[in-house]
Design brief:
The chain is mostly helical. The chain has one domain. It contains three helices and no strands. The radius of gyration is 13 Å and the shape is flat. The protein starts with a helix and ends in an 11-residue tail after the last helix.
Length: 58
């Protein structure tokens, strides 16, 4: 979570150096498959725009 918050903070501070929409999604219950499954069943890809880039947290 520290990485997630740090990345969001840094990207917001240098907003003048990039353009687009920042979309950050934290997976609930990431230790289990249930979290990702619940997000997909809740319509993750229908509710949010398709990103141009993805930066995985691993």
């Amino acid at each position: 979570m520290a990485f997630f918050i740090g990345a969001a903070r840094l990207l917001s501070e240098i907003k003048d150096q990039w353009q687009g929409t920042l979309l950050m999604i934290a997976q609930l219950a990431e230790e289990q498959v249930a979290g990702a499954r619940a997000m997909l069943q809740d319509g993750l890809f229908e509710r949010f725009p398709k990103p141009d880039f993805c930066v995985p947290s691993m």
